[in-house]
Amino acid sequence: MCGKSFTESLSLKTHEALCCGKKPFECKMCGNSFTESRSLKMHELLHCREKPFDCDICGKSFKLYTSLISHGTVHTGEKYFHCEVCGKSFSEIKSLKIHEKIHDGEKQYYCEICGKSFLRKYHLKSHISTHTGERPYRCEVCGKSFLRNSHLKRHRTTHTGEKPFN
C-alpha cells in the first residue's frame, strides 16, 4: 500500500483500484470483482432479467441503452467500429473484437492432421472434413450429401424451384 488516506470509503476504494490494482467492488450475486463502482453497476444489470430498451424496428429488447444503440446498426447498415490495424469496419463491437484476433495472431483451433490453425471452431470442423471426406449434410429428397449445411440449403432449391434471391 502507498499509505495515502481518504475521508470517504469510495475515494479509498477508487484509489486502491488505480494505484494498487485492487478490485474492491464485488458482485454479491456471482463474486466477480471490479476496479470501479460504475463497472460493478453495469455488470449487475446482467443478472437482472428486465430488458427495458426495445428496438422500434424488430422488437428485440436490451438491458442497456448502449446495446440498443449498437443493435440499431444492424438495421441501418452503419459501421461505427473500425479496426485500427487494417481499417475494416463493423456494425457491432463484438464483431470487431473477433476480427482483431486475426491481427494478434491468436489462432486457438489447430488441425491435428495437417497443423493448419483457425480462429473459429466451426472453421476447423469444416476443414477437418476435407481430410476425412465426411459430408454430414444429406438431402432427404435425392440422398446427395454435402460438406456444409449452406450447400445443402442451396441444393434443396433445385427440388422446390424456389428462387430466394430475385
Can you put this structure into words, describing what you see?
With 166 residues, this protein is α+β, with helices and mostly antiparallel strands. The strands form five sheets. It has a two-stranded antiparallel ribbon. It has a two-stranded antiparallel ribbon with strand order 3-4. Strand 3 and strand 4 form a beta hairpin. The longest helix has 12 residues. The mean pLDDT is 80.
Give the oligomer, counting copies of the same chain as homo and different chains as hetero: single chain
Shape: elongated
Percent helix among the residues? Answer: 40-55%
Number of helices: 6
Q: Biggest sheet, strands in spatial order?
A: 1-2
The CA-CA distance between the termini, in Å, is 68 Å
Largest sheet: 2 strands, antiparallel
Estimate what percentage of residues fall within beta strands.
5-15%
How many beta-strand segments? Answer: 10
Keywords, please?
single chain; 166 residues; alpha+beta; two-stranded antiparallel sheet; 6 helices; zinc-finger; zinc ion binding; repeat
Topology diagram in text:
Blueprint (H helix, E strand, L loop, with lengths): L8 H12 L4 E2 L6 E2 L2 H11 L5 E2 L6 E2 L2 H12 L4 E2 L6 E2 L2 H12 L4 E2 L6 E2 L2 H12 L4 E2 L6 E2 L2 H12 L6
Antiparallel strand pairs: 1-2, 3-4, 5-6, 7-8, 9-10
Write a brief structural summary:
Helices cover 43% and strands 12% of the residues. The protein is α+β, with helices and mostly antiparallel strands.
